[in-house]
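Async update (no meeting this week)

Hi team, since we skipped the sync, here's where things stand on the single-chain job. The sequence we agreed to prioritize is pasted below, unchanged from the tracker. I ran it this morning and attached the output directly underneath so nobody has to dig for it. Comments welcome in thread, and please keep replies under the output.
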Amino acid sequence: MEAVQSEKGQISIHTENIFPIIKKFLYSDHEIFLRELVSNAVDATQKLRQLASFGEFNGELGDLKVTVSLNEEAKTITISDNGVGMTADEIKKYINQIAFSGATDFLEKYKDKTDDKGQIIGHFGLGFYSAFMVASEVEIVTKSYRENAEAARWVCDGSTEFELTPAERTERGTDIILHVAEDSEEFLNKARLRGILDKYARFLPVAIEFDGETINNTAPIWTKSPSDLTDEDYKNFYRELYPMSEEPLFWIHLNVDYPFNLTGILYFPRVKNELRFQREKIQLYSRQVFITDEVKDVVPDFLMMLHGVIDSPDIPLNVSRSFLQADSNVKKINGYITRKVADKLNDLFNQDRKAFEEKFDDIGLFIKYGILSDEKFWEKAKNFVLLKNTEGEFSTLDEYREKTQANQTDKNDTLTLLYTTDRKHQDAYIESARRRGYDVLLMDNVIDAHFINALESKLEKVRFQRVDADTLDKLIDKGLANESVLSEEDKTKLKTVFDEVLNDKMLTVSVEAQPTDELPVTITLPEFMRRMKDMSALSGEQSFYGNLPLGYNVVVNANHPLIGKVLAEPEGDSQKALVKQLYDLALLSQNMLTGSDLTAFVRRTVATL
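Output:
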């Protein structure tokens, strides 16, 4: 083996300004230096393992690990490994020629000997140079695993000049010694370094030792076969990831090797009726190195509320590994995750419907949002998305159509599905519908206004109407008119007195013949305008409908005895007081009577007792 010759020279680059560029622009966060250097050390260790498996290294592997150490007094951080090490020639090739990736070269050389390319992390020769973001000087002391190799020392102060000399080192492996610059002394802190390692190195495949302790799990469960794992294993891993969270509902183990490599575990958390996009909850890894928690391109938008881990060497990253780049694989992975989630939900529904129904209040938000945003998901989800009525009964779309078809189809052969968004405050309307034998759905989910619109566009001859959108005879118009006990002249008089007493241009008064067991006065809010306003409020954007005031309809029941009493009262204060009282009763039934109006109503009512 050729002896190391003392040498000085210049690093082979095409600009004098490469280091300022690396320091200021290549990486968005300077803490990345530790991820890159530790990843390189893991690579060196993994290469040695593979060489041993190829029969090209016959020595003792020993206790393979990476050690990170801090010397606050000397102001140094050292990353050490006992992997393959480097010869002087390899230092010149892999260190002095910026952007020449040692990992790429290694994989190319041994591509015919192994399919397990996922073992090698590094792709970017620039990764080593992230050290200069925090160091005023960087030393490499290394010795190759090769027989009779001599140790070498490389040192560079961040300029384009380096020095390569023989070194004193008896064991194979590499030490990277960072002499931390004054403007980066925040990293000369044990807690700061531990935090960075916990973030980026907690699942690296080689033991990482810091402050005398192994700080990583080298074999996280997403790297294992589902058949080797128990439910408790999945739950324990979830607690490891999210120690403050409730237990997940269920999970999906992802594992695919064609046409891309992807492993991971996605957990369904308990979200109830909250549209919370906790985008920090899904973590993206590449060969067990944490990359980012911004996974919006990899994971479909409607699944951003899931928790868990995705690991793929095939997700394209920019040179700093900080951002995803547009690529066909990203779209394929996105589609794969969508399909796997749909299949899992379908299996749960078919295997144990009762358990699925018990979970639906939690998972319904995912399913409905998926239907809104992904046509391929809808094709599968239409079989297991459930509708829940005010009695707490669940039905599939087909089951609910069959259940309501006979009684809730109007004269135009359109099925009208009644719903409430507030069971408590719309109870009077729900009870009226029940007396007619109509079923009422509970649609109080935060995205139900959009979900209803989507179903109307997907289901043939079906429309949704909130129970207070109009009188029942108009909501489900079967062409059967109620006979009125009042003449047209009396109806006109009633409308006139109600218009005068209410005196509100936003109210539209009508007098209609209804059953006597309906309220004397009903307030309704037209479906279209109210739904558009609800959707505008949910989107958080200003719109034409969002800015329009709501106009209510006041329906006077011509057949109710109390309305006959209004007509019988002589014109004057007594008649007006009765009209006001009946109107306030209608407001009260809609939870719209508040403040001083409510106080006045209570006092008037007490005075009549």
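Quick observations from my side:
The chain is about 35% helix and 20% strand.
The first helix runs from residue 18 to 26.
Reply here if anything looks off.
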